Amino acid sequence: MTDGSANNKSWNDSWSRRGFLRSAAALTAVPVLLAADPAVAAAELPGFPADVALYRSAYRNWVGEITADGLWACAPADAGEVLAVVDWAWRNARRVRARGSSHGWSPLTVTEGTTADDKVLLVDTATHLTGLSLESGSGGSAVRAGTGVTLEALLTFLADHGLGLTAAPAPGDLTLGGALAIDAHGTAVPADGEEPLSGHTYGSLSNLVLSLTAVVWDAGTGTYVLRTFRRDEADCAALLTHLGRTLVTEVVLRVGADSDLRCVSRTDIPAAELFAAPGSGGRTLDTFLRRSGRIEAIWFAFTEYPWLKEWSVTPTRPLTSRHVTSPYNYPFSDNVPTVVADLVGRMVSDAAWYLAPVLGNAQLDVATAGLVTTLSADIWGPSKNTLLYVRPTTLRINANGYAVLTERAEVQRVVAEFASFYRERLTAYAALGRFPVNGSVEIRVTGLDDPGDAGVAGAQVPLLSALRPGSGSADTAVWLDVLTLPGTPYAEAFLRELETFLFERFEGTRVEWSKGWAYTESGVWSDEEVIGTRIPGSFGGAVWNAAVDELDRLDPHGVFGNGFLNGVLVRR
User: How far is Cα 150 from Cα 131, in angstroms, rounded to an integer?
Assistant: First the structure.
């Protein structure tokens, strides 16, 4: 392993780092809403509900590559005001796009090139749709939540009542509505001998939904209405992972007793050992999965030692573990270190992409040292405090994403074959002086969406969740993400090769909706074969068309569409 941090000591700390950090800070800011002049609003949006304040707002996705300025926006105070806004939008040929934290990559909310002339209205959910309350019934504990609540707020509320989730996405700033729209997930499968707890799931958050309230078209009255869908209703199936083709105002989630988790991090296992072929022996990923069921591997580009996190259910604090009383316990990762910022700034401003190996090793060095200096290599506490570890101040970087559905016994094979292909292609590109990846590979493993976890007879399976069980024997998903800086040359070509390999090598490959997919040689979300054939085929034609038909029937006027979604969610 090269000492990337030492190599950077001689560089001038002032060059471009400040500009880079200013850009990152701007992306983390809450969207600025500028109150609209009443006369202008009345002229441009005549008849808009008087009780709902209008604003002008910019839109930025997670990395700032999809942007739009001067859009009309509003923040309804409750579900009734949401309905009034949607009804107005339908009658005035407007499109409604729900906005939470904008922590996503793909153009599910707003497409690139959207302008104020495109009649798009942003509905901000995070301002007022944030209610939380506990409910109980024959199925156990449940929480009623507004879809604008953040995952951190939700998990904090649950922890205060002795409740929690088996797994959750790492960023706490995600809104619940956004997470459910794209079947957000954590990383967990049953460890050897582990018995699942009541009220929990190893699948996506969508699999915990007991009921949801959405704005949908009612053919009987000829208008949009608020309707509550129970989990056992057929119409609920497409709404559990709807990709933004509806607006959900409130959900009821099944939850269970919280577990104290120990999270141990290590950077001493070579990738060649961790991702070895099945039967190789040693400290393989499968070894840790069998022991704890909860792992994440972060493999920085051009390095040999991944950062492996292993969570285990541990009721009593081990003597070597630090008790953590709040989340986000990796400050060296949440806040861009100087050495990393300097490298990124030089790569972007000077097109010094050949520094990717130096950046990868610097990131590994920072993580290895940071785990020691912050006493975060071995932490223990309520699940929330170890599951949430990504703040908005982390390095903003592009990510692609896929779930490979497989049998639990085949996880090591999937990881080994992926790692071998990734390493071979990255080496081949580097030999040509091309460095398409400068971030990391992230690997997680989850269960699938078992409707029995909802505790409701006849519970529907989310139609468009990547974790929807297929027709085969797969019971597990391996999530594979590759991260690289926006604008990195040859990234799209490299990721296209990787995507093609996954679809052709593993029959159970599906895309991760919120991230990058459908690559061409120079673009993303644009390959017609992937969009028109591979993605629908990964769910099966009957399932895909059922989801499309249901979403169209509940929104026949396309109030919740956009140009991108309208081209993806069509019958095949």
Answer: 11
Q: Output the CA angle 175-177-179, nearest 5 degrees.
A: 70
Nearest to 331 by CA among 411, 389, 403, 386: 389
The DSSP code sequence of 329-387 is --HHHHS--HHHHHHHHHHHHS--GGGHHHHHHHHHHHHHHHHHHTT-SEEEEEHHHHH
What are 66-94's pLDDT values in tens digits?
999 999 999 999 999 999 999 999 999 99
498-520: per-residue pLDDT in tens? 999 999 999 999 999 999 999 99
Count CA atoms closer than 13 A to 432's CA, side-chain side: 11
Q: Please tell me the distance from the alpha carbon of residue 221 to that of residue 244, in angstroms, as a whole number.
A: 24
Determine the Cα–Cα distance for residues 185 and 208; give it in Å rounded to an integer.
11
In angstroms, the CA 267 to CA 539 distance is: 37
Q: b or e along 92-107 (b: 16 or more beta carbons within 10 Å of the residue's beta carbon)?
A: eebbbbbbbbbbbbbb
Strands, E assignment, 199-277: 209-218, 223-230, 247-254, 256-257, 260-266
For 235-320, strand residue ranges (E) read 247-254, 256-257, 260-266, 294-300, 307-313
Q: Is the pLDDT of residue 133 over 80?
A: yes
Give the integer Cα–Cα distance in Å for 310 and 466: 24
Is residue 369's pLDDT more than 90?
A: yes
Per-residue pLDDT tens digits for 228-258: 999 999 999 999 999 999 999 999 999 999 9
Tell me, rounded to whole angstroms, the distance of Cα 335 from its chain centroid.
20
Residues in CB range of 325: below 8 A, 6 or more apart: 381, 385
Cβ neighbours, 10 Å, residue 157: 18
Contacts of 491 (CB under 8 A, 6+ apart): 398, 436, 437, 484
Q: What are the tokens at 46? A: 């005549």
CA-closest candidate to residue 261, choices 296, 287, 285, 286: 296
Residue 541 has pLDDT above 70, yes or no: yes
Residues classed as catalytic: 103, 296, 442, 444
Residues 6+ apart with CB under 8 A from 271: 299, 303, 304, 305, 306, 419, 423
Residue 150 DSSP class? B
Q: What is the dihedral sign for C-alpha 553, 179, 108, 468?
A: negative
